[in-house]
Amino acid sequence: MMGYVLRRLISLGLSLAVASVLIFSVIAMIPGDPASFMLGTGAQPDTLAALREQLGLNLPFAQRYLSWIGGILRGDFGQSFTYKTPIAGMIATRMQVSLPLAVLALVLSTLLAFPIGMIAARWRGRGTDRAVMGVTQIGIALPNFWFAMLLVLVFAVKLRLLPAGGFPGWSDPLAALKALTLPAIALALPQAAILARVLRSSLIETLDQDYIRTARAKGLSRGQTLRRHALRNALIPVLTILGMQFSFLLAGAIIIENVFHLPGLGRLIFQAITQRDLIVVQSSVLVMVAAVIIVTFIVDLGYALVDPRLRR
């Protein structure tokens, strides 16, 4: 097991290194001059040159990359061109919204998907299975931003049970959880529908194996066989989808964050792009990519725990 973990850690480090080079290269190739954008079209040439010198835009590509990645390894993400504040603090503040939102949405989608997928697999080909699959198809087809606005109309405007937007901070945990509930539900619904369909398909494939028929022949009921034997062996594709979903929920919630006016990391990247604050963009994207790679590493460990054969 230790050898497997070591190999995955080496792969994780190489992936992060390659990702950092790609992110920095793509940002560096974006047309336009950040200094000209910040000062405006009427800026004097000497003022423009001084700002470019201050921002390090005149340095060679390799030197700028090494300076940037060296600062990140020391915990220094640089300073925002627009807000004149340390980027590390900005990212940490926004992650206090995005990370709990992603975790809450993933928990909700898992709690919905597992019983739905197991029910559909247990009664495959029958009316219950067809009804469940029809509902999940609707869940996949519904745009999450439209569903988010529908939730606001019902639970915030009509019933006044939950806030329509904004985030009060974690000084009041109950108010913070209330503020994240509707966005988490809006994100969790389509993810739960996808996960339920994947779980159903994986369980149906597992239920056709010989050891399942042997378990049934020993007297186990359909439900006992499903829970005790089929579920664990059907988890490999499910873990893959869970890892992908968490990455999407962390990095791809920008539309939901804008609908609910949440100060999350996705919204920070959107604002930095519109303001051409490129150092904020590349540092924030690197944090997101690192989070995705780390989640993939955790999923790989989950594979090894579920199926020991994969350790080899």
From TrEMBL:
<feature type="transmembrane region" description="Helical">
    <location>
        <begin position="132"/>
        <end position="157"/>
    </location>
</feature>
<feature type="transmembrane region" description="Helical">
    <location>
        <begin position="12"/>
        <end position="30"/>
    </location>
</feature>
<feature type="transmembrane region" description="Helical">
    <location>
        <begin position="234"/>
        <end position="256"/>
    </location>
</feature>
<dbReference type="Pfam" id="PF00528">
    <property type="entry name" value="BPD_transp_1"/>
</dbReference>
<feature type="transmembrane region" description="Helical">
    <location>
        <begin position="177"/>
        <end position="199"/>
    </location>
</feature>
<feature type="domain" description="ABC transmembrane type-1">
    <location>
        <begin position="95"/>
        <end position="299"/>
    </location>
</feature>
<feature type="transmembrane region" description="Helical">
    <location>
        <begin position="285"/>
        <end position="306"/>
    </location>
</feature>
<feature type="transmembrane region" description="Helical">
    <location>
        <begin position="99"/>
        <end position="120"/>
    </location>
</feature>
<comment type="similarity">
    <text>Belongs to the binding-protein-dependent transport system permease family.</text>
</comment>
<keyword id="KW-0813">Transport</keyword>
<dbReference type="InterPro" id="IPR045621">
    <property type="entry name" value="BPD_transp_1_N"/>
</dbReference>
<keyword id="KW-1003">Cell membrane</keyword>
<dbReference type="Pfam" id="PF19300">
    <property type="entry name" value="BPD_transp_1_N"/>
</dbReference>
<keyword id="KW-0472">Membrane</keyword>
<dbReference type="InterPro" id="IPR000515">
    <property type="entry name" value="MetI-like"/>
</dbReference>
<keyword id="KW-0812">Transmembrane</keyword>
<dbReference type="InterPro" id="IPR035906">
    <property type="entry name" value="MetI-like_sf"/>
</dbReference>
<protein>
    <submittedName>
        <fullName>ABC transporter permease</fullName>
    </submittedName>
</protein>
<keyword id="KW-1133">Transmembrane helix</keyword>
